[in-house]
Design brief:
The complex is a heterodimer of chains A (about 325) and B (about 160). By secondary structure, chain A is an all-alpha fold. Chain A has one domain: Ferritin (Up-down Bundle), CATH 1.20.1260.10. In chain A, about 55% of the residues lie in helices and about 0% in strands. Chain A has 10 helices and no strands. The two termini of chain A are about 35 Å apart. With about 160 residues, chain B is of the alpha/beta class. Chain B has 2 domains: about 5-75, GMP Synthetase, Chain A, domain 3 (2-Layer Sandwich); about 100-105 and about 120-160, no CATH class. Chain B is about 20% helix and about 25% strand. The radius of gyration of chain B is 18 Å and the shape is elongated. Chain B starts with 5 loop residues before the first helix and ends with a strand. The relative contact order of chain B is 0.15. The chains are: A mainly alpha (about 325), B alpha/beta (about 160). Chain B: InterPro entries: Fe-S_Maturation_MIP18, FSCA_dom_sf, MIP18-like, PaaD-like, Zn_ribbon_PaaD. Chain B: This is Phenylacetate-CoA oxygenase subunit PaaJ.
């Protein structure tokens, strides 16, 4: 047998997919051979009187909360204490990634000016350009979602706060005059309901578990708390979209979120942490593109492959 | 011989992750419009992050093109949001036949979503032995849309499609 024949024997198992019979048959490819527009066929016309720039900026805020939160949760994959929770955290991350994709696509459709420029001929769709080609200052997520995971108890504490808050926002956003945002929110409500229940139940389990689990949860809540106030700080963009009835003023959900978190903490036999709010930096927070030092390394990891191949097709 | 309609062809395309179900049985196939050799199909994702959407689209395009439809467009429908109530009776039977427990009625949603601190209570029957003695293992399973259960009678684990 010649070397050539040997090589032939060791051809890739995927070669069969390239048979002439299947040429041009996209169904052979698990993820398709090109990108699809997640809003294909969805009417993305702006509602009357809605400001395109403000709507796009608002979609980036909610989209970035989901994208960066999803990235952090996905870092638990293969690292959780058991398979069930590994899968649960990954599925929560996947739900958020799906919401992020729709929200970033909605931002790009509302105002194409928000999408970073890419080299000519790049096949990168707008939502990917927003995720992978914006620099740190362009991200509008709250600082809480970008924090390192810490241990499982800290992740649960953070997920409790972020999911109670996000669900309260999405429930109201389902009534947005922007039918695209309303539809994204309506879908998201069903998903984040699970995230909130998951986090709240784990808070109770850890609080009533062992001395160690309770101590870790208390420590986790302490770490999370200083960035909690920022979730209810209204920016100009949020004020504008709330006035135009396309978005939600986060200050309007503060009471409800407080009641729900207090309820979970009281069933857990815990007090609200007393640590002081982290406050803005140079007059701004995550919503203004001012992030903590955790954000740079997170983006470096998340974006490096896409940036190395700006004309790559995945 | 009659030529099958685009609707009939699209209705036979199966879900990539639950191939015992057609997209029509799953309630993901929302609309098929046919005009001459052009077809417009609307599908809706089960969950926002459903990674199977591109595969569903490609499968639909491939099957309809093979059937002679030259212009096939697959569009996304986001509203109303998918509900597990849209899974057909035939779909539910197919799930159980393949060892997956079918969802009960989806929760009614009026007013604020209640916080639920106790494990979700469902009447779940083991799809393998038919016992009602089942226990929840995890609210998430092989996909986001399923929970994992085990049967305490026959001891087999199984997936349950969640009420959504």
């Amino acid at each position: 047998m010649s070397t050539e024949d040997l090589d032939k024997d060791h051809d890739s198992v995927y070669d069969g997919l390239l048979d002439a019979d299947h040429a041009g048959d996209d169904s052979q490819w698990a993820f398709g051979t090109d990108f699809e527009d997640p809003l294909a066929g969805v009417d993305t016309t702006l509602p009357d009187g809605a400001d395109a720039g403000a709507l796009a900026a608002y979609c980036l805020m909610l989209g970035d909360d989901a994208l960066i939160g999803s990235h952090r949760l996905s870092q638990w994959s293969s690292r959780a204490h058991d398979l069930e929770d590994d899968i649960a955290l990954s599925n929560i991350a996947l739900d958020l990634l799906g919401q992020a994709r729709l929200l970033l696509a909605r931002a790009a459709a509302a105002d194409p000016g928000v999408v970073p420029e890419l080299p000519e001929g790049s096949p990168v769709p707008p939502e990917d350009a927003l995720a992978f080609f914006r620099d740190e200052g362009g991200f509008r997520n709250v600082r809480l979602v970008e924090q390192p995971n810490g241990d499982f108890a800290e992740t649960v504490a953070r997920l409790l706060v972020t999911s109670v808050w996000r669900l309260a926002l999405l429930e109201r956003l389902a009534g947005s005059r922007d039918t695209v945002l309303a539809a994204i929110a309506e879908k998201g409500v069903k998903e984040v309901t699970y995230h909130r229940d998951y986090a709240a139940r784990w808070v109770l389990t850890l609080a009533h578990g062992t001395e160690e689990s309770r101590a870790r949860l208390v420590a986790g809540l302490d770490v999370v708390w200083p960035l909690h106030d920022e979730l209810f700080r209204t920016t100009d963009v949020e004020r504008t979209v709330a006035e135009q009835q396309v978005g939600v003023d986060p200050a309007s959900v503060a009471d409800e979120v407080g009641v729900l978190i207090d309820h979970v903490l009281s069933v857990a036999g815990l007090e609200r942490p007393t640590r002081a709010a982290a406050g803005p930096v140079a007059g701004g927070t995550g919503r203004d593109g001012r992030h903590t030092e955790a954000m740079g390394p997170l983006l470096a990891k998340m974006q490096v492959v896409a940036r190395a191949h700006p004309t790559g097709l995945w | 011989m009659t030529v099958p309609s685009a609707l009939a062809i699209a209705s036979e395309v199966t879900d990539p992750e639950m191939p015992m179900l057609t997209l029509a049985d799953l309630g993901v196939l929302r609309e098929v419009e046919e005009e001459g050799r052009c077809v417009r199909v609307r599908i809706t994702p089960t969950y926002s992050g459903c990674p199977a959407m591109a595969t569903m689209r490609d499968d639909l395009v491939s099957r309809l093109r093979s059937a002679g439809y030259a212009d096939v467009r697959v569009e996304v429908s986001l509203s109303p949001a998918w509900s597990s109530d849209w899974i057909s009776e035939r779909g539910r039977r197919a799930l159980v036949e393949h060892g997956v427990s079918a969802p009960g009625p989806a929760p009614e949603r009026t007013g604020p979503v209640p916080l639920s601190l106790l494990p979700t209570r469902r009447e779940v029957t083991c799809p393998r032995c038919g016992s009602g003695e089942t226990a929840l293992v995890s609210e998430y399973a092989s996909t986001a849309c399923k929970a994992q259960y085990r049967c305490t009678a026959c001891l087999e684990p199984f997936d349950h499609v969640k009420e959504h």
